[in-house]
Amino acid sequence: YRADKLQETCEALLVDFPEQEKELRELSAWIAGAVR
Q1: Which terms in the Gene Ontology molecular function aspect does this entry carry (predicted)?
Q2: Which of 1, 28, 33, 35 could potentially form a cystine with 10 if both were Cys, beta carbons 3.0 to 4.6 Å apart?
C-alpha cells in the first residue's frame, strides 16, 4: 500500500479533471493522513 503512488495518481487526475481539484486535493490530504 503506497500512499505516494496514490498521491501521484491524484496529481495525474488533476490534469484530466481540473474542475475536481478541490475534491482531489482533499482526497490526497486524507490519503496522506490515513497512512501515517
Answers
A1: ligase activity
A2: 28
